[in-house]
Amino acid sequence: MRCPLCGGPAQPFAASTRKTSRTYHRCGSCGFVALAPSARLSRAEEKARYLLHDNDPADRGYRDFVGDFVRRAIIPFAAPGDAILDFGSGPRPLLAATLAELGYHCDLYDPCFAATRAWRRRTYGLVALHEVAEHIAKPGAELAFLAGRVAPGGAIAIRTRFQPSLEEDFDAWWYRMDPAHVSFYTPSCLERFFGGFGFVLAFLAPPDTIVFRKTALG
Ligand SMILES: [Zn+2]
Questions:
Q1: Taking residues 208-218, what's their average pLDDT?
Q2: How high is the pLDDT of residue 205?
Q3: Does the residue 4 lie in any domain?
Q4: What's the rounded Cα separation, in Å, for the pair 184 and 30?
Q5: CA 109 to centroid of ligand 1, rounded, Å
Q6: How far is ligand 1, taken at its centre, from the CA of residue 135, in Å?
Q7: CB–CB of 125/117 below 8 Å?
Q8: pLDDT tens-digit profile of 64-115?
Q9: Residue 52 has what pLDDT?
Q10: Is residue 189 part of a domain?
C-alpha cells in the first residue's frame, strides 16, 4: 500500500490487545500510520458514532479542552476579524461558537453535519482541524486542498493525538481503539507534508497540538 499522506511505501502490521487485532500500515518514508481500509467504518456507522459520542458544549471539561486549543493554537496566529474555517465542525460546533464570540468570522464544514461548499473557493487567515485529522482517510489529498485554502501569512492549526514515540507502545495506545480513528500522525510527518506547500512549523505542543504558518511565497 502507498502512504495516504505522502505516497511513500507503507508496510502492514497488526496491533493487538487480548480482545482485538487490527491491521495498520506504517509509511517507511514519513512514519504516518493508517488503519487498513478494510477495517474502516462506513460513513453511516461513522455518523452514528459521532452522535453517540457527541461532546456536550455545556460540559465544563470539554469547554476547557476547546478553550485551551483556541488560546494556544488559534489566537496567537489569527488577527481579530480574520476569517477562519472550522473544518470538521461536528454535530455541535463549540469551536466555531467560541471563535465567533471572539470576533472571528467562522465558516463551518463537516461531511456529516454541515456539508457546505462555499469554503472550497475561499481563503482563510486560519484553518482549524480540532480532533478531525485522525478521521481523514485520504489525508494527502484533503490536507493539500486545505493548504490551498490558507492565505499567504495565514496558518493551519491541528489538534490530533500524535503517535506514541515508541513503536511498541502503539498496541496498547488508547487513541487507536476508537474505530472512527483511521489516521495517526507524528509532528515530523506533518512538518514534512506542509513544508511541501510552503508552510513552516510555528507551534508544537505535544501530545496533540501543532500549528504551521504559510510563508508569503507558499
Ligand atoms: Zn508517508
A1: 89
A2: 98
A3: no
A4: 11
A5: 26
A6: 17
A7: no
A8: 999 999 999 999 999 989 999 999 998 888 999 999 999 999 999 999 899 9
A9: 77
A10: yes
Does residue 185 sit in helix, strand or coil?
A: coil
**Rounded to the nearest whole angstrom, what is the distance from the C-alpha of residue 176 to the centroid of ligand 1?**
18
pLDDT recorded at residue 51: 81
Tell me the mean pLDDT in the region 157-183. Answer: 95
Ligand 1 centroid from CA 62, angstroms: 32
Distance of alpha carbon 20 from the chain centroid: 25
Q: What range defines the domain where residue 105 resides?
A: 10-214
Give ion ligand 1 contacts, CB < 5 A. 3, 5-6, 8, 27, 29-30, 32
- The answer to whether 108 touches 93, Cβ cutoff 8 Å, is yes
Answer whether residue 2 is part of any domain.
no
Domain membership flag for residue 24: yes
217 — pLDDT class (breaks 50, 70, 90)? low
Count: domains in the chain: 1
- CA 97 / ligand 1 centre spacing (Å): 34
CATH label of the domain that carries residue 76: 3.40.50.150
